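User: Second chain of the day. Same drill as before.
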Amino acid sequence: MVGITNKIMLAEMRRQQKLSQDIVDGQTAISSGITLNKPSDDPLAWVQVSDIGRAQAQQAAWAANVSYGTTRAGNAEANLSEIDSLLTRAQELATSARNGSLNDTSRAAIVEELSTIKTTIGELIDQKDYQGVSVFDDQQSVLVPLSRGLNLAVVGTKQEVSEGIDVNGTAMSINDILDQTIAAVQSRDDSAIAASVEAVQSAQSHIAVEQAKQGVRGDRLETIGNRLTDVSTDLTERRGDLESTNLQDVISRLQANLLQLDAAQSAFARINQQTLFDLIK
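Assistant: Same format as last time:
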């Protein structure tokens, strides 16, 4: 009889401990706003939250890639714009060199500035960012994963930017064109200078096309980034709906548990006040 009584008392103690834990969980849910803390709270919701968590991690990785790609695209666009400005200046210098009244000092100054432009353009094409990543890729554009099944080249290559310029049917590089321009100015040959001006204009047209291509890459990155933001927002809302606390339900259960625990503790206290002889009567 005493064994049975002990078992009953132990079972009641465990029940009260469970009620106490449920009350603590309820209070935590109210204070944190999250009611889904372990699989047993809602197994189906827990699985869904786990799936959403994995999706959010993947979305975050893609968003980081978009940010990386946007930075590279911006650097490439800025460098192309500067190259375009330098070629415009080269054209102006070559055109001014056709002035037959130029003295040797003025002509030497033009040659010096053209040489500086050539060097600067080369530096812009070969430039690297603070992380040591080239502004333009070499030989082949690096494909950056931006979403499932979508890998995008975010910048062009050095070769695409600086080579393959059609000058009257001949493929030339920006370096070749500027070397030709410098040599023409030094030669004082007006026809050679005129030809070099046309070559520089071809280089400008080539860079304008590269700027347009880079603009398309930038627009695609922006579109993809906006889509990723929308998806991330939806995932956050879905996860919040699954995890968030329904205050009315939680408070109702909490009040019920408090009443049960209070009643159980009162009854348990009265039982413990009885003697063994009282219990076996």
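The two ends are 11 Å apart (CA to CA).

User: Great, on to the next one.
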